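Write out this protein's structure.
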Amino acid sequence: MTLTSFFRIFLAGVIAASMTGCSYMARQVLAPQKDVSKFYLLTPTADTAAPAQAAAATSGNFTLGLGPIKLPPYLDRPEVVTRAAPNRLELSKEDRWGESIQNGFTSAIERDLAAQAGATVIVFPWYNTVHIDMQVQIDVYRFETDANGTATLSAKWTILDSTGKNILYTVESNLTQPSKPGDMTEAAAALSRTIGDLSGQIANMLQQLRSQRGAHPA
């Protein structure tokens, strides 16, 4: 074999090996990637209440209008949002909400208020023909966990009369619940508990207002 023939064979082997390597890399890049997304839900604390307590709480003849409920625009996305710093948010690459945060929040507090306030809850908007005894509006400023796992819910809530025109009570609540850092399952549960806490504050004030009206009927 001449030297020229040897180099031709060697060069052909190098080219073949390179093409094989490129083909393998192309298959790896173009192959379907495994979806590592995980999906989470907010759950009402009423779901964990004892049946007897829930039955007692929901007795009564009181209709509560719930809404509008406004959440900050930065939460209007499927990715779970974490507050990394006072002025910085991080979007998770893997953790997702199983439904819009607006729907999840509204559904959870609707169930909690129905149980804790002993009310029939009707979510905004409703027909003009529907009778509402009182109305609760909620304007959420913050609703997320931080790097330490602390879940925070900051919101202004207002109770109005049956006409929806007269304010009976308004206040801002700042609620927190702990969870394990980096554990989104616990974080979702902690966020759910803050909704339950807010519902409890609203239910207590509704009871006070109902008692006052009973003592001083119009």
